[in-house]
Design a protein that fits this description.
Layout lengths: L4 E5 L3 H13 L3 E5 L2 H11 L3 E5 L7 H11 L3 E7 L3 H9 L4 E5 L3 H16 L14 E4 L2 E4 L4 E4 L2 E3 L3 H12 L4 E3 H9 L8 H14 L9 E4 L3 E4 L2 H6 L26
Parallel strand pairs: 1-2, 1-3, 3-4, 4-5
Antiparallel strand pairs: 6-7, 7-8, 8-9, 10-12, 11-12
Helix pairs in contact: 1-5, 2-3, 6-7
The chain binds calcium ion (CA).
């Protein structure tokens, strides 16, 4: 963990100092910049492992920084936003931020999230929380997921996913038909016991659908299960008769119990 590089983009000195102190205490190498232009230059030149990005910046604002970063990198981005910037927060996630914290935030919470994410990255895609294949390929309907190269192919075309989108898809494709709640996805993909806004999941599901579905508004692969969460559909795969998953995975019970309601004894 020591030496992993974190870029902090924030123009408020007291926040910068606080965040820097907490992160350096954990052994991270912290670089700070105070405006968007410097953020883009630093990100390009030093390739940080994670970026903490304030939304309200002088010059190029955080949203634009986020959008431009995503054009060249899938570095993990945590946005810092004010409570009043709810619309911007969603836009930020749609532009490619992986997560956000709302000001005022606890530095401990920020450090916990940073550590959780980077630990997962270090340990590969397993993270110790789910059964995974270190290598190999999952054929999930029209998608071929190459785990070693972390690539997804659909109809012969490479699909450009961020690291987080890849992990999200991997969770679903590993267990087609299993319904995952938002809380479970936050735990498995974002790597920590998340106490924030579960819409982070919805936004990233939406982004993933735009990339893998023929029609994101009528998803065939990544289905919404109302009131519960999401699942990767396995039914259509059987119906088409054409697609299959070559590596059989031992049956695991659904993480969500779907028991019939108890009927009172007469
Ligand atoms: Ca600011």
């Amino acid at each position: 963990m020591a030496g992993e590089r974190i870029l902090v983009v924030e123009d408020e000195a007291n926040i910068v100092n606080l965040v820097r102190a907490y992160l350096e205490r954990e052994g991270f190498a912290v670089k700070t910049v105070t405006d968007g232009r410097a953020a883009l230059q630093q990100a390009h030149a030093t390739r940080p492992d994670l970026i903490i990005l304030d939304l309200m910046l002088p010059g190029i604002d955080g949203l634009e920084v986020c959008r431009r970063l995503r054009q060249e990198s899938d570095v993990y981005i945590i946005m810092l936003t004010a409570k009043t910037e709810e619309a911007d927060r969603i836009v930020g996630l749609e532009l490619g931020a992986d997560d956000y914290l709302t000001k005022p935030f606890s530095p401990r919470e920020l450090v916990a999230r940073v550590k959780a994410v980077l630990r997962r990255r270090r340990e590969g895609d397993g993270g110790g929380t789910r059964v995974t294949h270190e290598s190999g390929t999952i054929v999930a309907g029209p998608l071929t997921i190459d785990l070693a190269r972390r690539r997804v192919i659909k109809n012969g075309q490479l699909i450009d996913l961020t690291a987080l989108e890849f992990e999200l898809l991997h969770v679903f494709a590993d267990d087609p038909g299993i319904v995952f709640s938002r809380a479970q996805l936050l735990q498995r993909v974002w790597g920590y016991d998340y106490v924030g806004d579960e819409r982070v999941v919805d936004v990233h599901i939406g982004l993933l659908r735009k990339k893998i579905e023929a029609d994101p508004s009528e998803p065939l692969l990544l289905k919404t299960v109302r009131g519960v969460g999401y699942k990767y559909d396995e039914e259509w795969r059987v119906a088409s008769g054409e697609y299959y998953r070559p590596s059989p995975i031992a049956h695991r019970p659904s993480p969500i119990a779907h028991r019939p309601p108890k009927v009172a004894e007469p």
